[in-house]
Specification:
The structure is a single chain. With 83 residues, the protein is an all-alpha fold. The chain is 69% helix and 0% strand. The protein has three helices and no strands.
Length: 83
């Protein structure tokens, strides 16, 4: 869980420093790492990564991670400039 939180925090730091694509890819990567850890860790060691059953957790973590990463890489226009 700590590894996932560290990657997510790094992603949020990148987003907040105006590098939103890199940050979004890191956030997606954190979800993919969570999916891998959910598969590899035994039930007594998985901790807060276990929300539902193992297949549902892995499917949700990996699907959201891939979607976020792909969207961040493929968006080519637009920015967060409001001024």
């Amino acid at each position: 869980m700590t590894l996932v939180l560290v990657i997510a925090a790094l992603g949020m730091m990148r987003v907040l420093t105006q590098h939103w694509r890199e940050g979004a890819v890191l956030l997606g990567g954190a979800l993919i790492v969570a999916a891998v850890l959910r598969v590899l860790l035994p039930v007594d060691r998985v901790g807060l990564l276990a929300i539902r059953s193992r297949p549902v957790d892995v499917l949700c973590y990996s699907a959201f991670g891939v979607v976020i990463s792909v969207l961040a890489v493929t968006i080519t226009r637009g920015s967060f400039d409001f001024g």
